[in-house]
């Protein structure tokens, strides 16, 4: 018979932008040079391969829930997955610009391919470097006019005359239609200017950093002129609602989001029509902005509303009580070492005796709904994500 809590064995994903060396501090594993390990997934959704480790068996979490019908008090829990996914990521190079589309009628959504994606980024190391959310249109005008590139003068005229978010996005949409030679020519001019004036303008420093790490000569080098720049220190949190374009430039963090595959990415390898559609869809949505979340390090509850999941950041100094009665929980240890044990009076303890389990940095555990109460003891930091009830 399987017992819980369970140590989770993660699903590893490779990507060209991954930083294997940084990620090894959380989960040492071999990786090829061309595709270093970039992400570690923890979830119970069937489309993500996060597993329970039990002896020689490896069971996807959702299968485990189905098998435990006689052990779970509420049968409905068996048919429901944890509606969130937690991903430890490490980026040595910039990821593609991406956003989550808005869903016009959320009440009619049935599949994870159509659900709105709400994302929280938690910085594991200082600094996590991100572009997110459109900059003030007037500042975008100043950034573009400061380049004094003659071939852009006509293109930016509508934005100069009427600085709006719509006009800014339309410039990016047009730049995306340029052929490779045109994009390279503009990118070289931008790099030349950035090299001359980088000490006077931090935006140019970002442009050069992207060029040096990605070795790219395309329109994506212009993105720092259009989007807000964030450098998150360790423990800082950024909330990204749907329809907010963002790009992780480099650094290490945890992405927590509801389980959905509804996102669009701007990639050089995309077809022209795909990249056009990226901007066309974005132009339809109202402008929304990222939000830096301020929280009390002594209070684990992160003040977020209207999300499909509830997030706690636990800075453990002694003991913390987990109420596992209402919803399934996934927790990842980010720092230190902690012991998880069943609380006295846990009604499930008699049926499922739980040995004390010790978790170290980078390890995660899963508690199904109706698991009862548990105590965390030790010193360190962990995140705890549960279904919103």
Main features:
alpha+beta; 8 helices; Jelly Rolls; RmlC_Cupin_sf; 9-stranded antiparallel sheet; 389 residues; RmlC-like_jellyroll; Mannose-6-phosphate isomerase; 22% helix; elongated
Classified in CATH, the superfamily of the largest domain is Jelly Rolls
CA-CA gap between termini: 29 Å
Number of DSSP helical runs? 8
Q: Helical residue percent?
A: 10-25%
SSE run = EEHEEEHEEEEHHHHHEEEEHEEEEEEE
How would you describe the shape?
A: elongated
Instruction: Indicate how many domains the architecture comprises.
Output: 3
Mean residue pLDDT: 82
Largest sheet: 9 strands, antiparallel
Number of strands: 20
CATH third-tier fold name of the largest domain: Jelly Rolls
| β-sheet strand percentage | 25-35%
Overall structural class, as computed from helix and strand content, comes to alpha+beta
Q: How would the blueprint of this fold be written?
A:
Layout: E1 6-9, E2 11-14, H1 20-23, E3 37-43, E4 51-54, E5 57-60, H2 61-67, E6 84-91, E7 97-99, E8 119-123, E9 128-134, H3 137-147, H4 153-161, H5 165-176, H6 180-197, H7 202-214, E10 227-232, E11 237-240, E12 246-258, E13 264-266, H8 272-283, E14 291-293, E15 309-316, E16 319-323, E17 329-342, E18 357-360, E19 364-367, E20 373-387
Antiparallel strand pairs: 1-4, 1-19, 2-3, 3-6, 4-5, 6-12, 7-13, 8-11, 8-12, 9-10, 9-12, 11-14, 15-20, 16-20, 17-18, 17-19, 17-20
Helix pairs in contact: 3-4, 4-5, 5-8, 6-7
Protein name: Mannose-6-phosphate isomerase
Organism: Entomospira nematocerorum
InterPro entries: RmlC-like_jellyroll, RmlC_Cupin_sf
